[in-house]
Automatic annotation (TrEMBL):
GO terms for cellular component: cytoplasm. Pfam families: His_biosynth. The keyword Cell membrane does not apply. GO terms for molecular function: 1-(5-phosphoribosyl)-5-[(5-phosphoribosylamino)methylideneamino]imidazole-4-carboxamide isomerase activity. Coiled coil: none annotated. GO terms for biological process: L-histidine biosynthetic process; L-tryptophan biosynthetic process. Keywords: Amino-acid biosynthesis, Histidine biosynthesis. Belongs to the HisA/HisF family. PANTHER family: 1-(5-PHOSPHORIBOSYL)-5-[(5-PHOSPHORIBOSYLAMINO)METHYLIDENEAMINO] IMIDAZOLE-4-CARBOXAMIDE ISOMERASE. This is 1-(5-phosphoribosyl)-5-((5-phosphoribosylamino)methylideneamino)imidazole-4-carboxamide isomerase. It comes from Candidatus Iainarchaeum sp. Gene3D superfamilies: Aldolase class I.
C-alpha cells in the first residue's frame, strides 16, 4: 500500500530535501488539502516542528485527523502526547527517535499494538 505523507512546518505543508532545504510549500489550509486525500485508506502526517523540538502544529494535526484515516508522527516522546494524538482521531501514532523497547511496550499495553507504527 502506498501511503501519502503530509509534512507540516510553521503551519504549512512542506517538502524538505534531506530534512533541511525546503523544496515545496503548499498554499492554503492543510486540512483542506488533506480532505482531497480522504478516500485513501491512510494518510501519514508528520509534524516536523514537533519532531525538531520547535513547538508544533497540534491544531492542524487535529483538523486533519477529522477528515482522513491518519497515522501521525513527529515529537511523540511521551504517553501523554500519544494519547493526545489518538484522542484527536489518529488511528496510529508513529514513533521515531523514542522507539525503544520499554517505551513501545508501555504504549502497546496502554493503547494496543495496532495503534503503533515505528519509524527510524
Amino acid at each position: 500500500m502506498i501511503i501519502p505523507s503530509i509534512d507540516l512546518m510553521n503551519g504549512k505543508i512542506v517538502q524538505l530535501r534531506q530534512g533541511k532545504e525546503k523544496m515545496l510549500e503548499l498554499k492554503g489550509k492543510p486540512a483542506e488539502f488533506a480532505e482531497t486525500l480522504s478516500a485513501l485508506p491512510a494518510v501519514q502526517i508528520i509534524d516536523l516542528d514537533a519532531a525538531l523540538g520547535r513547538g508544533g502544529n497540534s491544531e492542524m494535526v487535529d483538523e486533519i485527523c477529522k477528515v482522513v484515516n491518519a497515522r501521525v508522527g513527529g515529537g511523540i516522546r511521551s504517553m501523554e502526547k500519544a494519547m493526545e494524538i489518538l484522542d484527536a482521531g489518529a488511528k496510529k501514532v508513529i514513533i521515531g527517535s523514542r522507539a525503544k523497547p520499554e517505551f513501545l511496550q508501555s504504549l502497546a499495553k496502554e493503547f494496543g499494538r495496532g495503534c503503533l507504527h515505528c519509524s527510524s
